[in-house]
Amino acid sequence: KAKKTVPILFVGIWGERKGGPQLLEAFKILLKKFKNLRLTIVGPIPKKFKISSLTIVQRDFVPRDELFKKFYPQADIFVLVPPKAEGFGFVVEEAQSFGIPAIVSRVYALPEIVKDGETGFVVRPSNLADLVEKLEILIQDKELCEKFGEAARIRFENLFSIEKSNQRLLEVYEKALAAR
Q1: What residues contact residue 125 under an 8 Å CB cut-off, 6+ apart?
Q2: Is 127 helix (H, G, I), strand (E, B) or coil?
Q3: Among 17, 34, 128, 155, fewest CB within 10 Å belongs to which?
Q4: How far, CA to CA in Å, does 44 sit from each of 12, 60, 151, 166?
Q5: Per-residue pLDDT of the chain (180 residues; tens, 9 = 90+)
Q6: What's the CA angle centered on 89, arms 85 and 92, to 5 degrees?
Q7: pLDDT (0 to 100) of residue 84
Q8: Taking a C-beta distance cutoff of 8 angstroms, is the pair 103, 121 a contact?
Q9: Measuring CA to CA, how many Å separate 80 from each of 13, 89, 180?
Q10: Cα 133 from Cα 145, distance rounded (Å)
Q11: Are 120 and 152 in contact (CB under 8 A)?
């Protein structure tokens, strides 16, 4: 077991839609085995979720520059596991840009952002055992976590950086104008 604190990050509006309750349950399970975990939640959570006794840091709102300067750089693992739907998952791309491996659920575009077994893990929606298993792998294997993080950063630069996105957008516009 690793001695260093393993910071896990969740960014988004808490709730069933983003998989927050499932992450909290997985975290409680893993905390029984690993005492060195910390979960940081950036986003509001309902009062019914009791987090005071856990090693959880929670902030309702964080300005974007603080998110980029403080929260992403301190994370080892990023988790976004919506059970049913997710528009795109920009926060996953943001995490990847910092070299953070992500665990996401197999919904909408998330499996296109995270390459399962290369830049993180893609888990079955609403499957607590799957989430716990994949988190445990990254918690226990720091080298694998770092390897996934580096692959995530490279993938971000090659596919999702502002330069690459602008280049693809320009190609779409040029193609549309050429068709006129």
Answers
A1: 81, 82, 83, 84, 105, 106, 107
A2: coil
A3: 17
A4: 8, 4, 30, 32
A5: 445 899 999 998 766 678 888 999 999 999 999 989 999 999 888 777 777 666 888 888 899 999 999 999 999 999 999 988 777 778 999 999 999 999 999 998 899 999 999 999 999 999 999 999 999 999 999 999 999 999 999 999 998 888 888 888 898 999 999 988
A6: 135
A7: 81
A8: yes
A9: 11, 8, 41
A10: 14
A11: yes
Rg of the chain over all Cα atoms, to the nearest angstrom = 17
pLDDT of residue 3: 57
Distance (Å, whole) CA 109 – CA 160 = 13
Query: Within 13 A of 77's CA, how many CA atoms are on the CB side?
Result: 30
What is the pLDDT, as a whole number, of residue 53? 66
Beta carbons within 10 angstroms of residue 125's beta carbon: 20
Structure tokens at 14: 């808490």
What residue spans of the chain are helical by DSSP H? 20-31, 64-66, 72-74, 90-97, 110-113, 128-140, 142-155, 162-179
User: CB-based contacts of 120: which residues, under 8 Å, 6+ apart?
Assistant: 78, 101, 102, 103, 104, 114, 148, 152
pLDDT at 70: 96
